[in-house]
Every structure is written in C-alpha cells, then in structure tokens.
C-alpha cells in the first residue's frame, strides 16, 4: 500500500513569517501520522539537555520500546506548565508499563529547563529544540488562538498570565527573558514505537490552539495504563 501521508498539514508548519497565516485563529492542522521518511529524517536532528549537551532525536525517542514524546510551547507558557503539572500528578513514571517512557521537548534556551522542571514538577526527561526543526518536520503549527478551556487548566487566565510575567522578569537580569522559545509555536503528543522492525509514530495529536494538549483519557489509553478515575 502506498503511504500518502506526506505533508500532513499542507505545509502550514513551514510558515514562520512575522505574522503566520493562522495568527487570527484559523489553525490548519490535523492528526495524520508522520511518514516513515519524516521519522528517518528527524532522527539526526539535535536536542539539547539542561546542560546544553546535544543528543540526537533518534536516541531520545528510542529510550524505550514505546516512547511518548510531548512537545510543549515556550518555557514561560502558563498553559503548558499547568498541563505538565496535571499530567505529572496523574501519571507517575512508576505507573508506566515496563516498555514505555515519556519524554518532554520544549523550544527555548536549555538554561531555562531547570526553571521549567521546578515550575511544573515534571518527573520526565526534558529536552529542547530551540531551532524547532522537529516541531516543523512533524507538522506542528503556530498560533496565538486560546481555544476552549481544557481539562488541565485550574488557574484563572489572568493569574496564569501574571505568573508568566513574573517568570519573565525573574530571568531578565540573566538575559533569558526573551529566550523561552517562539511564543506562537504550539506542540502536541506523538507515540513512537517499533512496528515491523522500523520505528513509527502510531498515534499523534497536534495542538490547534495554545491550550489544546491531548485529553488525559486519550493519553492513558495510548500509554496502556488504567485511569485512576
């Protein structure tokens, strides 16, 4: 069977102008699976850890037989911070099946990773893709559209905004206030696993707004863990 899943969002991810075409909120995206060619291509792309050391995406995504990779927005984004707090509270590393791991990837300066871990309580390995090459190749788009309130948001929007501003001001003296990552970039979730001897994405969700991470029930189903509810 011919694989027809190339170009998953009609090149929307390639838009990186001063005002992306989806800036007004009309996000063009879908949850089509990346092709094997795309997965092979991004394998050599570099990620940075908290110390600024480089790791290939292939190495990070192959840390387990099944690796659930979460892509988040800029490191000062209060929405994604709430998402990781809620996810870390709901899914502990010890509750994952033996052959499964979770990895988180941002798009800001690696020197902000420790701050991000402290702010979110994230228990999973965290890397960053400052050039957003992997974000683009996997079809994640750019938007400032807020979208509907999701399951993981607890704080009022104004409180989240103030908290983000405080984080920015805290890192102003360190020269990192503008280094959290592209503020229009949104992320998503991708399950990488080995099928028929090759590494494939078997499930994915691309964010359609700045607070459109996958539903907890969907994540638990993909991870093959039982809900505590």
From TrEMBL:
It comes from the Eukaryota. CDD domains: PRX_like2. InterPro entries: PXL2A/B/C, Thioredoxin-like_sf. PANTHER family: PEROXIREDOXIN-LIKE 2C (PTHR28630:SF3), PTHR28630. This is Thioredoxin-like protein AAED1. It comes from Ceratocystis fimbriata CBS 114723.
């Amino acid at each position: 069977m011919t694989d027809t899943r190339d170009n998953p969002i009609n090149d929307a991810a390639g838009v990186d102008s001063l005002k992306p075409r989806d800036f007004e909120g009309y996000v063009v995206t879908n949850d089509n699976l990346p092709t094997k060619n795309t997965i092979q291509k991004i394998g050599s792309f570099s990620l940075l850890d908290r110390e600024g050391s480089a790791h290939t995406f292939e190495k990070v995504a192959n840390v387990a037989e099944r690796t659930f990779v979460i892509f988040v927005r800029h490191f000062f984004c209060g929405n994604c911070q709430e998402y990781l707090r809620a996810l870390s509270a709901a899914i502990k590393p010890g509750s994952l099946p033996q052959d499964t791991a979770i990895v988180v990837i941002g798009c800001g300066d690696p020197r902000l990773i420790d701050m991000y871990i402290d702010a979110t309580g994230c228990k999973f390995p965290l890397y960053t893709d400052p050039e957003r090459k992997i974000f683009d190749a996997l079809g994640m788009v750019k938007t400032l559209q807020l979208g509907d309130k999701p399951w993981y948001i607890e704080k009022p929007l104004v409180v989240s905004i103030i908290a983000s501003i405080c984080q920015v001001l805290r890192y102003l003296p360190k020269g990192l206030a503008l280094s959290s990552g592209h503020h229009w970039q949104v992320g998503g979730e991708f399950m990488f696993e080995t099928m028929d001897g090759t590494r494939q994405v078997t499930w994915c969700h691309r964010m359609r707004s700045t607070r459109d991470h996958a539903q907890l029930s969907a994540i638990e189903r993909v991870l093959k863990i039982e809900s505590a509810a």
